[in-house]
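Could you join me in thinking about how sequence relates to backbone shape in a protein? Label the sequence line and the structure token line clearly, so we can match residues to local backbone shapes. Once you have written the record down, we can walk along the chain together.
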Amino acid sequence: VIIFSSVPTTITSCTVLTQVSGGNFAVAIVNSVLGNSLGVFISPSLLLLFLGKTGNYNIGMTFLKLSLTVI
């Protein structure tokens, strides 16, 4: 449950649920794209915070590799 709640929603489910409920489709797409873009960086931090596991790794290097992968 913790992992499921730490990752962003998919674009498809976000927009479909918004359309079904009569919401603003354009705002749903912007929100979903922004959430998925930021989720790459926020999800690992949230998992570390919620699970409380520590390890021998460099968080700065992890974010650098994630940034290069996304770009």
Observations:
- DSSP finds four helices and no strands in the chain.
